[in-house]
From TrEMBL, chain A:
Protein name, per record: Nuclear RNA export factor 3
UniProt subcellular location: Cytoplasm; Nucleus
Domain of life, per lineage: Eukaryota
Gene3D superfamilies to which the protein is assigned, alphabetical: 3.10.450.50, 3.30.70.330, Ribonuclease Inhibitor (3.80.10.10)
Biological process annotations from GO: poly(A)+ mRNA export from nucleus
One Pfam family it belongs to: Tap-RNA_bind
Chief localization: cytoplasm
Gene Ontology MF annotations: RNA binding
Automatic annotation (TrEMBL), chain B:
Principal location class: nucleus
One BP annotation, GO: protein transport
Gene name, Swiss-Prot/TrEMBL: NXT2
Protein name (record): Nuclear transport factor 2 like export factor 2
One GO location term (cellular component): nuclear RNA export factor complex
Keywords assigned by UniProt, alphabetized: Nucleus, Protein transport, Transport
Cellular location(s): Nucleus
Keyword DNA repair: no
Record region (Disordered): 19-52
Record-annotated NTF2 domain positions: 72-191
The UniProt record lists the keyword Transport: yes
Entries under Pfam families matching the protein: NTF2
Taxon lineage: Eukaryota, Metazoa, Chordata, Craniata, Vertebrata
InterPro entries: NTF2, NTF2-like_dom_sf, NTF2_dom, Nuclear_transport_factor_2_euk
């Protein structure tokens, strides 16, 4: 993401290279917004043929068949969230790995789409990237609607076995800087370009149905066990009817209803500054990137708590103060220096935790500076016996108040991005609840942006599976390439939530804050606090 | 990439030995020497800080920065919370003129505002259970030596129930030939359980 300091190239070469890369990225971003359908797309029947041909040539068993005993989500009552969780759990027990990734169509057939995402893929030329993947992939594939989205590159494939084969390529390919390239795969419903079968009246019906069902749930969205699909976090949790088609329609609806952009404020230094180029010349891509309204709004939907709490006061001032001589100031929600920085930070967090929760944290290498630092701590309470949910973090915990051994003090502070990412990879697998995030941006200069994130996450494997832990994480970042952030310091503090009562106690301040938020209609947008 | 840095170079070893007599322990600043007040966080002088990327930068290795950061952090935390609890009016002496504080989402900026703010806060009793620190990379600070200090524990403000808290500081070093004075450039404070009753 950013060039390390002390790079051996001459400054002018660096600048020229970066410009070239940036203008490529600019082209990609421009074209990705305007085209809806890839010009190289074949008719759906042709694709089907190719898909089947690919399957026959595949190395796996063609064990793709109708399974009458698999319970499709639409047949069950209850929230979409619960259905899918149980469904996936069942699959995990009974079916071979590639099964887990099949989307379920109402009639049980498996013509299913998968979205393939390369994190930070915006750095790469499309042809180059696809060729690289093809070389390593065990099956041939046709990438459909290749596009760049935020910092990532994505395309669709219409087959579970292919998706699985692509997933296996993750980490086996590297770019020109020798950084490993990761690949993420998730079920995708029916992408909008394939929606031609849905007649417009049906789409209207689905929209109506969605609006009726779009009441806001009181519980934190539980996405444990769901294949990770970022857009799903913004969807309504109560889709009792056909989820596949609903999701397709909601993809469509979402794009139509994006409200007009709020203009980005000037914090010029942060609009894509390159290290060493202090504002003199800025690459055009970064300005465009940050003005992208659909980016901003989809991010805000991921962080509903920020929408509700930002700048607002607590509805219960007695929480913090009583009739003492002096009252405590009212506790407020997230604090950001400016709208633009807020979007920058939220995008960063979305991308960071996408990878952090994916099961493969090696993808974070590009987020850190070569000489970054990381350490973690858990609370030390003399009265407590060690809480079991924190014991996995205990051996890495650095608390210099009680740790006097100078050797350990050094060891527990991870230095260099390789050591850091290795260390992070050894920590338990997690699922962070982005809707619980509270962010304080507390120091900002021309060269540094420092912010702390408070929130909760779940452990998703091992003995403490399902237990909820709270964390505070402080990032010190510098401007990276392509308007990204480069982490130089990372400090994680993990604690359990037991002394705070149940998980829901964390969210009582604004009841609707943590809910999964559906795509906003224009009417709903007007009702949001500004 | 360590680029061949060793942990303890000969120079550093000698420098460390020369200074060990000077640094007396966590309460150095409480013994008045050289006109320091009680509310100053002072440590031995910062190692020579060369420009980033120059060959000289290699000679000041990472371990030195880490050690220095730890010393500053430990000393700082002792003084800060004691001052906060017992000598509240002197607290702003630990802040830079243009320092900022985000206190449970409330932004306070500059010494005047900080003075008002700390004046309106009820009296406090802090108990710090966790302390950690990291040297901040020079790319973020343009060679202004800075330490990230993170604390956690409990606090009881008069008239209020006890809260768990997390606090982050950025301390910057202001060097004189004889010593280094550390001041708070930025401060972020949050109750951990701020949303529950």
């Amino acid at each position: 993401m950013s060039l390390p300091s002390g790079h051996t190239m001459g400054h002018n070469d660096q600048v020229a290279q970066r410009r070239a890369r940036c203008s490529d990225i600019y082209q990609r971003r421009l074209s990705s917004r305007s085209e809806k359908v890839s010009p190289g797309m074949h008719s759906s029947s042709h694709q089907q043929q190719d898909g089947e041909a690919a399957m026959h040539g595949a190395h796996m068993d063609s064990s793709v068949r109708y399974t009458p005993y698999a319970i499709s989500p639409y047949n069950r009552k209850g929230s979409f969230r619960k259905q899918d969780q149980t469904h996936v759990n069942m699959e995990r027990e009974q079916k071979p790995p590639e099964r887990r990734m099949e989307g379920n169509m109402p009639d049980g057939t498996l013509g299913s789409w998968f979205k393939i995402t390369v994190p930070f893929g915006i750095k790469y030329n499309e042809k180059w990237l696809l060729n690289l993947i093809r070389k390593e992939c065990s099956v041939p594939f046709i990438p459909v609607e290749f596009h760049y989205e935020n910092m990532h590159a994505s395309f669709f494939v219409e087959n579970a076995s292919i998706a699985y084969a692509l997933k296996n390529v993750s980490g086996k390919i590297s770019d020109e800087d020798n950084e490993k390239i990761s690949i993420f795969v998730s079920p995708a419903g029916i992408p909008h370009f394939a929606q031609k079968e849905l007649k417009s009246e049906k789409v209207e019906q689905i929209k109506l149905a969605m609006n009726q069902q779009c009441d806001v749930s009181q519980e934190a969205l539980d996405i444990q066990g769901l294949p990770f699909y970022p857009d799903m976090m913004t969807r309504n949790t109560k889709m009792a009817s056909n989820p596949g088609k609903c999701m397709a329609a909601s993809l469509h609806v979402h794009e139509e209803n994006i409200p007009t952009v709020m203009s980005a404020e000037g914090m010029d230094k942060w609009k894509g500054i390159e290290p060493g180029e202090k504002g003199a010349e800025r690459s055009p891509v970064c300005t465009t990137f940050l003005d992208n309204s659909s980016n901003i709004n989809s991010i805000l939907e991921l962080f509903p708590k920020l929408l509700c709490l930002d700048g607002q006061q607590s509805p219960r001032p007695t929480l913090c103060g009583t009739e003492a001589h002096k009252m405590l100031p009212t506790c407020k929600g997230s604090f950001f220096g400016s709208e633009m920085l807020k979007n920058l930070v939220l995008q960063f967090l979305q991308q960071y935790y996408l990878i952090y929760d994916s099961g493969d944290r090696q993808g974070l290498l590009s987020a850190y500076h070569d000489e970054a630092c990381f350490s973690l701590s858990i609370p030390f309470n003399p009265e407590d016996s060690a809480p079991s949910s924190l014991c996995k973090y205990f051996k890495d915990s650095r608390n210099i108040k009680i740790l006097k051994d100078p050797y350990l003090k050094g060891e527990l502070l991870k230095h260099t991005k390789r050591d850091i990412v290795d260390s992070l990879s050894a920590l338990p697998k997690t699922q962070h609840d982005l809707s619980s995030f509270l962010v304080d941006m507390w120091c900002q200069t021309e060269w540094m942006l420092c912010f702390s994130v408070n929130g909760v996450f779940k452990e998703v494997e091992g003995q403490s599976q399902g237990s909820v832990l709270a964390f505070t994480r402080t990032f010190i970042t510098t401007p990276g390439s392509s308007s990204s952030l480069c982490i130089v310091n990372d400090k994680l503090f993990v604690r359990d939530t037991s002394h705070q009562g149940t998980q829901s106690a964390l969210f009582t301040l604004v009841p609707t804050a943590f809910s999964s938020v559906p795509a906003f209609s224009q009417e709903q947008q007007k009702m949001l606090p500004s | 990439m360590r680029r061949g840095r060793s942990y303890w170079s000969q120079e550093d070893r000698e420098r460390h030995q020369r200074r060990s007599y000077y640094y007396e322990g966590p309460h150095t600043s409480h013994s008045s020497s050289g006109g320091q007040t009680r509310e100053e966080v002072v440590t031995p002088p910062v190692p020579e800080h060369a420009a980033a990327g120059s060959p000289m930068a290699m000679s000041v290795d990472f371990k030195t920065y880490v050690d220095q950061a730890c010393r500053a952090a430990e000393e700082f935390v002792n003084i800060y919370y004691e001052t906060m609890d017992k000598r509240r009016r002197a607290l702003t002496r630990l802040y830079l003129d243009k320092a900022t504080l985000i206190w449970n989402g409330n932004a306070v900026s500059g010494l005047d505002a900080l003075n008002n703010f700390f004046d309106t806060l009820p009296s406090s009793e802090f108990q710090v259970n966790m302390l950690d620190c990291q040297p901040v990379h020079e790319q973020a600070t343009q060679s202004q030596t800075t330490v990230l200090v993170v604390t956690s524990g409990t606090v009881k403000f008069d008239g209020n129930k006890q809260h768990y808290f997390n606090q982050n500081f950025l301390l910057t070093a202001q060097s004189t030939p004889n010593n280094t004075v550390w001041k708070i450039a930025s401060d972020c404070f949050r109750f951990q359980d701020w949303s529950s009753s």
